Hints:
The protein contains 14 helices and no strands.
Amino acid sequence: MQSARSLKKARRLSAFDIAVYAISTAVGLIMLYPFVYMISLSVSDFQPVLNGEVIFLPHGFNTAAYRVFFADNSIWRAYLNTVIIAVGNTILGLAVNSMAGYALSISIFRWRRPATIYLMFTMFFGGGLIPFYILLSRMSLVNTYWALIVPYALSQWYIMIFRTFFSNDIPESLRESALLDGASELQIFRQIVLPLSKPVFATITMYYIVSNWNNYFMPMLLLDNSELFPLQVILQHKLSISNAQKMDGSLNFDFYSAIPVQSTRAAAILASSLPILCLYPFIQKYFVKGVMIGAVKG
Length: 298
């Protein structure tokens, strides 16, 4: 009787597993389809694209859209600008937020509670866009890389993530032992805390790089010099063209109207997304653990 119940229970679990796998597979295919579709559009022959015949798999093979895209020197300059901004903002942000989070994780820090309340307050209330622009203008940061690096280095949300990780995953006894051995707070942070904090650093690094890579509005607002434009600003111009239009000559865009606009858009989107897609697998194991910070409190 008991074995029959166990067998029935196993069958119910098996049916549930099948349903979960089926739903997960369906969702995965739905999410994968736009990516495959963009690849097909970018490499298909021109006539099938113009006729709307490309639905899933490519029709023919033509890489003209990619050749023209990468032949434009402004694209390579935009890639360089984006890398400079993303790397600079990420390095500065990790340094500032991790040290602030470490300070707030120390239980004997007397200003811990007021500082946390202040940070929480500024998360919900700000001065607004116009005062922000005026401040950067008076600091002579407008139309420079620093306008996109310095103001966004400190993040209240990231400080709270670091604080939670250090409080839950770094034993207080480690810090106390190091203090007894004569180590300073900076030495404790550099030699003990940092080597044990790879998951949270990988997670915040990914957040910073993705947000900088996809940032469009603030560069458009704070930069006037086309030589400083990051990739997303350049792509906005490229994706707004049609077969009968060309870009403003002052930006030196040569995206030939002979190529279908659907192909050029697909090539531009894929070329801009590829660096992020290539980066993720290298930090996946740390990223998956890092996003669980604070989910379980032991």
